[in-house]
UniProtKB/TrEMBL annotation, chains A, B:
Chain ranges passing through the membrane: none
Organism of origin: Amycolatopsis samaneae
Pfam families: TetR_C_24, TetR_N
DNA-binding region(s) from the entry: 34-53
Name of the protein this chain belongs to: TetR/AcrR family transcriptional regulator
Positions of the HTH tetR-type domain: 11-71
Record keywords, A-Z: DNA-binding, Transcription, Transcription regulation
SUPFAM superfamilies linked to this entry: Homeodomain-like, Tetracyclin repressor-like, C-terminal domain
Length: 209, 209
């Protein structure tokens, strides 16, 4: 059974419907977007949407779970590794940058979740779990003598991920071009790998020469 | 002329009205908050609100201008200083952390502005102006040999302020207590000065020992 196309517009599968919903949530806010808005944007009826998902909240859940699943997949891969905590921390940061770059609209939505609904509170709980995991890793690296002891590990972890998460504000992969000497290349120029390099250089060894 | 108190509630001056409005905008989103919601929250009529401000957009403008004026005041103070760009950059970062900590709800609103209204677009334009100023300072410090040359100055500037701006996500000055060895002290423990120290240590010299 497929969703019939209406007025010449293509039908949507769950994936493309989710993509449009997430874009709209990011533009207008989740609370500020109704199923009516989504229906208008898609050019299909609300009942055609309900054919795919039972509620707006379910769209949110699917979207933020995609971001969270990506981040936790990196975390589990990281936990399976031997070696020093500082190296696992760098692995986690690089993997997180890759997830942010690849799933940008989904992570953007996740990071803007406020906690007004059950799905949002569940997402916030998983975010806190991820934060605790980062903090624990920083703490361990500090205990091994690889992370500076003069900043609270919880603060270090939050500042580190503050840097990582800021990518959602300025990284626009669809507009890739090389940065120029005098332009604001930050918006456009970098691949996910180059971004991860930049984050690790600044965060691990600082911007000062 | 003062706003009469209604149903036993105190009257509001513009300042306290603005405080409640900003709190509500941050909880529900600016787009998702109506003057009706604000009127209910305040326990006064909409016309009592319109006695103080002509529109919801004017409340937004007043709020984000407070945050922006604070940041630009630091920038102007910074520009008046002699010496190396790297020292001016540190001055700007410390001053920005102080503004964030002191004007937390106002800066939070500023950083969530989406650009759907004229007031929001004006705020975004001033944010971009501030970003350019930071990038220019990083570029100058790199030219003076004090900032690493292997990351694009625009990227460095954005990562640095990604770290600074992340404070709005986790710093809660009203819940001050000392951090503990195993707790997540990051939420509560630090004064603005301690926060600025932490940001400068991590950003300028890195988290690695």
């Amino acid at each position: 059974m497929t969703t019939p196309a209406r007025r010449g517009r293509p039908g949507y599968d769950l994936e493309s419907l989710l993509g449009v919903a997430v874009k709209l949530f990011n533009e207008r806010g989740y609370d500020g977007t109704s199923m009516e808005d989504l229906s208008r944007k898609l050019g299909i009826t609300k009942s055609a949407i309900y054919h795919h998902v039972p509620s707006k909240e379910e769209l949110l859940r699917l979207a933020v779970d995609r971001a969270l699943n990506g981040l936790f997949a990196v975390a589990h891969e990281m936990e399976a590794q031997d070696g020093r905590a500082i190296d696992r921390l760098e692995f986690l940061v690089r993997g997180s940058v890759a997830v942010l770059a690849e799933q940008l609209p989904f992570v953007t939505l996740l990071l803007r979740v406020r906690g007004n609904t059950k799905a949002e509170r569940a997402a916030l709980a998983r975010r806190r779990e991820f934060d605790r995991l980062v903090t624990e890793l920083v703490r361990q690296a500090a205990a091994e003598g690889d992370v500076r002891p003069d900043v609270d590990p919880a603060v270090t972890a939050r500042l580190l991920y503050g840097m990582v998460n800021s990518l959602i504000e300025w990284y626009r992969p669809q507009a890739r071009r090389r940065s120029t000497a005098n332009g604001d290349g930050a918006e456009h120029g970098a691949t996910p790998d180059e971004l991860a390099d930049a984050v690790c250089k600044i965060a691990f060894t600082g911007l000062r020469t």
